[in-house]
Amino acid sequence: MNHPKEERTLVLMKPDALQRNLLGEIVGRFEKKGLKITGLKMLQMGEVLIKEHYGKYADKGFFAGLKKYMTSAPIVAMVVSGVRAISAVRVIVGPTKGYEAPAGSIRGDLSMSIQTNLVHASDPSEDPEAEIKRFFKPEELFAYKKIDFDYLYSADELA
Ligand code: CMP
Predict the structure, then answer these.
(1) Domains assigned to the chain
(2) Is the sign of the CA dihedral 18, 53, 116, 31 positive or negative?
(3) Phi, psi (deg, nearest 5) at residue 58
């Protein structure tokens, strides 16, 4: 079971993560932090998903390049859960521009680009649950208690 205080958020490992052999490294960073993987799958993004997920950028100059990049190879989609997971995941991922993202973050340590920035993480203002629904069916998601849970959080953080 997930604790009632646990949040869920969507992470996409983009084609450059796959091509640069960084999938394991990236999954490991979330695991080591103490976050819980509650969904994981590989898929090929196509026209429909690109429109749904990146539609807000359709009028931007970088949209055509973004579409080409995101459809160039499969992606790995992941749902990450934990207490305050939405903000914790964004800190681990770092800001969009890899070349100025802080060292220690995935983008800061592993990316030099605005576009090929390895990962996507849900923005809290853009309804992470809606993003999860875009990529996962309910039966592809799991709720369970991890054995390290009681050591990751203090009792008052869970009250
Ligand atoms: P992501 O967090 O998935 O959200 C939108 C994506 O568009 C972003 O990561 C980058 O991959 C890409 N992106 C954002 N801004 C630019 C830009 N100025 N030029 C090229 N790609 C961009």
Answers:
(1) 6-44+73-158 (3.30.70.141)
(2) negative
(3) -55, -30
Question: Under DSSP, is residue 133 helix (H, G, I), strand (E, B) or coil?
Answer: helix
**Tens digit of pLDDT for each residue in 123-149?**
999 899 999 999 999 999 999 999 999
Separation CA 106–CA 73 (nearest Å): 20
Is the pTM value of this prediction over 0.70? yes
Which amino acid residue places its CA nearest to atom 11 of ligand 1? Answer: 115
In short, whether 99's Cβ falls inside 6 Å of ligand 1 is no
CA 55 – CA 51 distance, rounded (Å): 5
Which residue, chain included where needed, has tokens 């993202």? 101
Tell me the one-letter amino acid at 47: E
